[in-house]
Amino acid sequence: MSAGVPALTVLSVASEAVPLVKTGGLADVVGALPGALAAHGVAVTTLLPGYPSLLVQLEKPRAVHEWDNLLGESARLLAAKLGDHPLYVLDCPALFVRDGLPYADTAGKDWADNWRRFSALGRAAADIAGGAVRVRGKAQGFDLLHAHDWQAAMAAAYLRYAPFEGQAVPSVVTVHNIAFQGQFGAEIFGALGLPPWAWDMYGVEYYGGFGMLKAGLYCADAITTVSPTYAREIRTEAFGMGLEGLIAARGSAVHGILNGIDAAVWNPAADPSLAQPYTLRTLGKRAVNKRALEAEFGLAEDDGPLFVAITRLTWQKGMDVLAEAVDDLVAEGGRLAVLGSGDAAIEQGLQTAALRHPGRVAVRIGYDEPLSHRMQAGGDAILIPSRFEPCGLTQLYGLAYGCLPVVARTGGLADTVIDANPAALATGVATGVQFDGVDLDNLRAAISRTVALYRAPEEWKKVQKNAMKADFSWGASGAAYARLYRSLLA
């Protein structure tokens, strides 16, 4: 931060953040933002829901505020730490203390009252950011509120519409995945504590129902998405999921800012999960991790390429097409290790493929963070055939670990991977393989191109080094967020 530039205070509200709670990449981003922005004169306090698994991890939390009636429930505000940065936790047992996952029960069914749970989170965030909450007798206000995805988007709507003893500060809503919108029936509107005029197509109403993300996108002073290409894509019918008209109407208020990765966590030179740390200069040591990964998955050792996939096993991620392509991948001399969970049919398809190809294909259903690190370090290439991908983080981890990304040309995948076409190879800038159109033929062709590149060891090594040199830390992205915040305050 340059001399004379005042520090900004930002309340970042989300439904998850590493290391406390994670169901996807949203948590990585929210957990990394405070550190990324601190270098640019922005002090971030994060607000999270008080899930049981989160509460037990807090060290010496302090109750600093109470609500007697937060959308019909009593609640407390706890102060703690998220790493070295301040953290607030909304402790509301009636809404958040229950068995299951953050958004669903033990059977995987969404909680029927998710509208109330996350509207309460948004209302609390608006109260805190606007200065209506008193902490130790003093008003606790912020310069700006930053809400993430549908679970937090109502914070922007409450800042605009809800009466409270505070002031309406500027708000930013980040769309991490526009496919998830928080849509509910119109009958719940009366319980939201909003004035009647908020029920309008230019407000929280959405095709006759209540839309949480829609409300936030309409009310926010600025909208960000997690890559420039995705910011353009969601203006179109193919990617906008019904919100393309609103996104297009917001015009210059929509910004695409790439996610970064935490280089302290994703660093092959100092990763405690690995069998053998390595660097750009000691790439030869990487082979130890490949052998260890083969053993861990029960795969046969050979000199062919080892592909990995670390993802949700869903249609969006193109995993149905990967299940179809397994036989071709094996026929090309490749092997495949998969880590993830999702649609039962896709899980079964991949597991059946593993039975057809013992020693060549292996599947782990579930998620294991240390194993995901070992797969990035031991795999030769990571397959990411997503039909749409707002940003993606696994390709960034792959670049950092020299595990070459094989990606569909969409969203953040298009923005972060340079295709190993003849021109890029000739000029020495390629970092992976891209392909257009997520179908069996195109994925087969991408796998064949990857195998051919792998069979040219010197060329492969050059591309690996290019990948590891790429800088996708939070430096540039943190600066972009700080500029956006200051422009709103100006």
UniProtKB/TrEMBL annotation:
Pfam families noted in UniProt: Glyco_transf_5, Glycos_transf_1
One Gene Ontology MF term: alpha-1,4-glucan glucosyltransferase (ADP-glucose donor) activity
Top EC class of this enzyme: transferase
The keyword Cell wall biogenesis/degradation is annotated on this UniProt entry: no
Keyword field: Glycogen biosynthesis, Glycosyltransferase, Transferase
Record EC number: 2.4.1.21
Reaction equations catalysed: [(1->4)-alpha-D-glucosyl](n) + ADP-alpha-D-glucose = [(1->4)-alpha-D-glucosyl](n+1) + ADP + H(+)
Domain of life where this protein originates: Bacteria
Binding site for ADP-alpha-D-glucose: 22
SUPFAM superfamilies: UDP-Glycosyltransferase/glycogen phosphorylase (SSF53756)
Pathway terms, separated by semicolons: Glycan biosynthesis; glycogen biosynthesis
UniProt cross-references to InterPro entries, sorted A to Z: Glyco_trans_1 (IPR001296), GS/SS (IPR011835), Starch_synth_cat_dom (IPR013534)
Residue ranges of domain Starch synthase catalytic in the record: 10-248
Annotated Glycosyl transferase family domain residues: 300-462
Family according to the record: Belongs to the glycosyltransferase 1 family. Bacterial/plant glycogen synthase subfamily.
Function of the protein: Synthesizes alpha-1,4-glucan chains using ADP-glucose.
Protein name per the record: Glycogen synthase
Species of the source: Novosphingobium organovorum
Lineage: Bacteria, Pseudomonadati, Pseudomonadota, Alphaproteobacteria, Sphingomonadales
